[in-house]
TrEMBL record:
TM segment ranges: none
Top-level division of the source organism's lineage: Bacteria
Keywords, sorted A to Z: DNA-binding, Transcription, Transcription regulation
Native organism taxonomy: Bacteria, Pseudomonadati, Pseudomonadota, Alphaproteobacteria, Hyphomicrobiales
Start and end residues of each HTH hxlR-type domain: 90-180
Protein known as: HTH hxlR-type domain-containing protein
GO MF entry, a single one: DNA binding
Amino acid sequence: MDIKHLVNITSRAWSVPILAALHAGVAGRQAPLITATGAGRTAFAQSMTHLIEMGLLERNPGHGHPLRPEFRLTTPGKIGAEISHQIWTLAGEENRDLLRKSWTLPVLAIVHTPHHFNDIQRALAPITDRALSQALKALEERNWVHREVDPEARPPRPIYSAASTGAEISAIMAPHLAQN
């Protein structure tokens, strides 16, 4: 998996919770998954369609009703679901809202090692200054990212690195991002 693939997965708020729920053994039908994730029907449907288009989910042939289909993880989906489940479990109930934001996981993946703001922005090419600033601020507020000013740079520039739970989540993703 590369960073662009991770950005694509997390572009839908409920993708990670759906994958985590499927890995945990929740039945691959709409009602149990909506109950397990707490998603609204429209957002859930958009996330499911997105996961199918990405090749992480597929309809389970021969199972389910045409109006209530059953879904299963594909081979790449199983890997993504395992990672999602580890992250979802580690974050805890109080931080799951942060995981549903588009840029949280991609930013954490980049700041596994210390990076300057511009380096993070280059690595996450489509991200805007404002979106990156908001993501970093939200992560700093939860103490998932540590901001330290580089005193030797002129002008002084902050360096961001994963901290506490953010570092643990980043460590889960790092080996999978390094493969490609």
